[in-house]
Amino acid sequence: MAKEKEFVKEIASITENFPQWYTDVVLKTELADYGPVKGTMVIRPYGYAIWELIQRQMDERFKATGHENAYFPMLIPYSYLTKEAEHVEGFAPEVAMVTKAGQNDLSEPLVIRPTSETIICEMYSRWVESYRDLPLLINQWANVVRWEKTTRPFLRTSEFLWQEGHTLHATAEEAQEETLKILYLYEEFARNVLAIPMFMGRKSEKEKFAGAQATYSIEAMMQDGKSLQSGTTHFFGTNFSAAFNIEYLDRDGKRKNPYQTSWGTSTRLIGAIIMAHGDSRGLCLPPRIAPIQAVIIPVAMHKAGVLEKCNEVYAALKGKLRIKLDDRDYSPGWKFNEYEMKGVPVRIEIGPRDIENGVATVARRDIEGAKIQVPLDDLCAQVEKLLDEIHDNMYNKALAFRDSHVKTVGNMDELKDAVDSGNFALAMWCGDEECENKVKELTNASTRNMPFDQTPCGDKCVCCGKKASKKIYFGKAY
RNA sequence: CGAGGUAUAGCGCAGUUUGGUAGCGCGCUUGGUUCGGGACCAAGAGGCCGUGAGUUCGAAUCUCGCUACCUCGACCA
Question: Domains in chain A, ordered, with CATH?
Answer without folding.
Answer: 2-277 (3.30.930.10), 288-389 (3.40.50.800), 406-475 (3.30.110.30)
